């Protein structure tokens, strides 16, 4: 740690300016009141108060994020001269904020741009910076408060003490906001699961009815129909088990894309066709555990829609599924329904299932989905980054 950059010992040497304790007390009361009523306003107000009480020209929070390793600081709630850098990232192990976390106490830095190239490259001049770690109930530091002065020799021990007291409240506020975000996310996830379960149950009844009708038309007698139905319902159960949300529950593993597809389409096979109703063409492709779940959901939804509205709504319908890997690291999948009964008009698929299909492709996998309807059914083109399928 360069001694000409980090001059923390000078805080105690400088004469402390007259402390306005009433102002500090009012500031703490203000923050406490906002934490109870409007916690989302605490952090912006906290930064403003820290800058005002210490006489800085700019201030902000650098909140620590563990990924990507070894972590970064994200600049948040910036005020004053450097407010345009809101959302900027700084390296954990190559920044004054990182030194502050390592020290675990207030740190004073003089012209850190002389040592940190990324600060100089951003065109930032820092005559003097006071940095204070943010804690929550004795836990590991979660970030830092930093305040910039307009000139060297500005900050003293009184400024460091006041900033540290404010930082205690800021640490609590950060944790409160994070808890609120986690609770909101959990509630949204619970609502999504409930809607998805209802959607899948409705689809299951539709698919079961289709299987009974298909089996009745192609069976010679009731015994053959019963045997065939038992096999198809067992296959449907295996396909349904692939689409799960809880990874603590062990389900059937099917890490090869081709095996996954066979499991999902098997209940809908009609062996009147010499080669079956489904043509699967593509190279060997191994899926990760989490991507397996998402891909199962995608093809389960496509298959169900084909049974209800598209190419599999008639006995003559077939589906071709082709996939290939591009040189750009993309997996390209084409789902084509052919030979089914003619579709008079394009189905209006704007419900939860369509949203679930698109969200899985775009949000979970970062891919794209293009759909076009012909008279015999749907053609869907799915493009996914290959790297997002290995987890």
UniProtKB/TrEMBL annotation:
A Pfam family it matches: GAF_2
Catalytic activity: ATP + protein L-histidine = ADP + protein N-phospho-L-histidine
Class of enzymatic activity (EC top level): transferase
A GO term, aspect molecular function: kinase activity
Signal transduction histidine kinase HWE region domain residues: 196-284
Keyword Nucleotide-binding: yes
Keywords recorded for this protein, A-Z: ATP-binding, Kinase, Nucleotide-binding, Phosphoprotein, Transferase
EC numbers, comma separated: 2.7.13.3
InterPro entries noted in UniProt: GAF, GAF-like_dom_sf, HATPase_C_sf, Sig_transdc_His_kinase_HWE
Source domain of life: Bacteria
Protein name: histidine kinase
Organism of derivation: Rhizomicrobium electricum
Lineage, opening ranks: Bacteria, Pseudomonadati, Pseudomonadota, Alphaproteobacteria, Micropepsales
């Amino acid at each position: 740690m360069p001694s000409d950059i980090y001059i923390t010992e000078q805080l105690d040497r400088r004469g402390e300016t007259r402390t306005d304790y009433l102002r500090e007390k009012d500031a703490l009361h203000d923050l406490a009141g906002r934490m109870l009523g409007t916690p989302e306003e605490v952090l912006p107000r906290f930064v403003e108060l820290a800058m005002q009480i210490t006489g800085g020209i700019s201030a902000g929070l650098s909140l620590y994020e563990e990924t990507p390793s070894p972590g970064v600081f994200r600049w948040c709630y910036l005020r004053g001269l450097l407010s345009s850098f809101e959302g900027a990232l700084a390296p954990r192990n190559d920044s004054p904020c990182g030194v502050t976390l390592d020290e675990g106490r207030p740190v004073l830095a003089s012209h850190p741009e002389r040592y940190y190239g990324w600060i100089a490259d951003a065109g930032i001049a820092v005559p003097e910076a006071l940095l204070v770690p943010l804690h929550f109930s004795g836990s590991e530091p979660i970030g830092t408060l930093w305040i910039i002065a307009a000139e060297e020799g500005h900050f003293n021990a009184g400024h460091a003490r006041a900033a540290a007291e404010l930082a205690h409240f800021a640490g609590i506020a950060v944790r409160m906001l994070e808890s609120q975000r986690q609770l909101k996310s959990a509630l949204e996830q619970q609502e999504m699961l409930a809607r998805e379960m209802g959607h899948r149950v409705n689809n299951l009844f539709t698919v079961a009815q289709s299987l009974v009708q298909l089996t009745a038309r192609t069976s010679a007698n009731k015994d053959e129909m019963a045997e065939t139905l038992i096999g198809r319902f067992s296959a449907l159960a295996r396909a349904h088990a692939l689409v799960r949300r809880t990874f603590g529950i062990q389900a059937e593993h099917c890490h090869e894309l081709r095996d996954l597809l066979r499991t999902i389409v098997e209940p809908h096979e009609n062996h009147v066709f010499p080669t079956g109703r489904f043509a699967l063409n593509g190279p060997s492709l191994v899926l990760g555990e989490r991507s397996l779940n998402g891909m199962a959901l995608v093809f389960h939804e496509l298959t169900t829609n084909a049974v209800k509205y598209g190419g599999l709504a008639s006995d003559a319908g077939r589906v071709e599924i082709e996939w290939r890997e591009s040189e750009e690291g993309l997996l390209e999948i084409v789902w084509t329904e052919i030979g089914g009964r003619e579709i008079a008009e394009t189905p209006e698929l704007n419900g939860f299932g369509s949203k679930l299909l698109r969200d899985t492709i775009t949000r979970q996998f970062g891919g794209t989905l293009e759909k076009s309807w012909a008279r015999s059914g749907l053609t869907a083109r799915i493009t996914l980054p290959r790297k997002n399928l290995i987890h």
